[in-house]
Specification:
The protein is of the alpha/beta class. It folds into three domains: about 140 residues, ATPase, nucleotide binding domain (Nucleotidyltransferase, domain 5), CATH 3.30.420; about 80 residues, Dna Ligase, domain 1; about 100 residues, Nucleotidyltransferase, domain 5, CATH 3.30.420.40. Strand 13 and strand 14 form a beta hairpin. The longest helix has 25 residues. The protein is globular. The relative contact order is 0.16.
């Protein structure tokens, strides 16, 4: 593997930091060379709050991956997330530069730069990406790509995706040796990994339910219609279970993962006895292996009893709240009930049993779970949508590796030394 050119995505999430490394294969798409993750700390609602702690975790993850796989990571793409990501609209107009009045690549680049010139109401914002809404050439509309067309006056209506400059700087500091161009918004990365061109053409809404945030992106005719991030995610479901059952967060998370489902209309008479004795066991305690042995002794143990209906009611209430927020964004795009591509759910929160059926009921549209496509050697896992999408979204921007490249891993290790007393 040492000779392979490794292209790597790094998803800095609220709950987990994930990494996937691939090499490009013309026949199979992407061959996965490694995939790993580490618990996150210092990230709140998708935004980095404690740079030193996040940097340490990233360093540990990179060192582990490089050692295990005998590789050097030097093409690293990272996500940015959080409710500070925002879409704004702007318009630009230029005169076509060539004497033959044919729109050139230089004209396209020039109008892209002009459309990014906008007052963002705050001097501490940066434009991450431009999404064309409509091209107009000499008054003619409905143009998909003006390159090579003849005209004198070129106009562009576009969405600009902005982020707080301080959030971008926090990511660069936490990773170390990272170029700003290698930062991609999480929701746009999700779309690159999960959605097909046909879905984007027909009209589709992609909802990523993460631990700390939920995002939605809406496409039609292969154009971005709307984009939003909400400060609510699957961690809120865990918190609701902890409050509802008056138990610890760790226990609530285990209950959600082992028994959670989205169906308040279920029979619900079945009682579940959850053994809490694992809390007193050592760290290497195997809960799954030992619970059968202790089942017969549960009367003498500390047991949390609850019904399926109680649990389903708690989970469904929070998921419905998330879907209501997403539906408002669909309404803003005037596409309520009008998306033939339906609803695609992804992210770790999309693993909840029954969530597809609930989404069909709430949105009155077809719904399915979205997984990363074209990644050979990677199991179907909706929580990997963002990290895989980072690779797909930025592949064309990778430059050939220079002979003096020191690698991201080495850069971050030099940076982290600043935090060592």
């Amino acid at each position: 593997m040492a000779k392979d050119r490794v292209i790597t995505g790094l998803d800095i999430g609220t709950d987990t930091i994930k990494i996937v490394g691939v090499k490009k294969d013309s026949e199979i798409g992407f061959e996965v060379l490694f995939s790993d993750k580490i618990d996150s700390f210092g990230v709140h609602k998708g935004r980095i709050r404690e740079i030193g702690e996040v940097s340490k975790r990233i360093q540990d993850l990179l060192e582990r991956v490089e050692k295990r796989n005998n590789c050097r990571i030097d093409s690293l793409f990272v996500n940015i997330n959080g409710t500070r990501l925002q879409l704004v609209s702007n318009h630009a107009l230029i005169s076509v530069g060539r004497a033959d009045q044919k729109v050139s690549k230089e004209d396209i680049e020039r109008i892209y730069e002009d459309v990014k010139t906008i007052n963002l109401q705050s001097g501490n914002k940066t434009i991450l990406q431009v999404f064309p809404k409509e091209w107009v050439l000499d008054g003619e509309k409905e143009i998909n790509d003006p390159l090579g067309m003849q005209g004198m006056r070129l106009e562009l209506d576009a969405f600009l995706l902005s982020a707080f400059t301080s959030d971008i700087e926090s990511i660069i500091e936490a990773v170390g040796g990272l170029d700003e161009d290698n930062i991609v918004s999480g929701p746009i990365a999700d779309a690159s990994a999960v959605l097909t061109p046909n879905q984007k053409e027909l009209g589709v809404a992609l909802i990523n339910i993460g631990a700390g945030t939920t995002s939605i992106v809406i496409f039609e005719e292969n154009k971005l219609l709307n984009f939003a991030v909400f400060p609510i995610g699957s961690a809120n479901i865990t918190n609701d279970i902890a409050i509802g059952f008056k138990t610890e967060i760790e226990t609530a998370e285990k209950i959600k993962r082992d028994f959670g489902f989205c169906n308040n209309n279920a029979n619900g008479k079945k009682m579940i006895d959850f053994d809490l004795s694992y809390l007193d066991e050592p760290e290497d305690y195997d809960f799954e292996e030992d619970k059968k042995k202790k089942k017969a002794e549960k009367k003498n143990k500390n047991v949390l009893s609850f019904s399926e209906k109680e649990l389903g009611k708690i989970i469904e209430a929070r998921v419905c709240e998330i879907f209501e927020l997403a539906d408002k964004e669909i309404k803003k795009a005037s596409k309520q009930g009008l998306l033939p591509g339906g609803i695609v759910l992804t992210g770790g929160g999309a693993k909840l049993p029954g969530i597809v059926e609930l989404a069909k009921k709430e949105f009155k549209l077809p719904c399915r779970i979205g997984y990363p496509k074209d990644f050979k050697g990677l199991e179907k896992d909706s929580s990997l949508a963002t990290v895989c999408g980072l690779i797909i979204n930025k592949m064309e921007h990778i430059e050939p590796r220079g002979s003096n490249s020191s690698g991201i891993g080495k850069s971050i290790r030099r940076f982290f030394e600043n935090f060592i007393p």
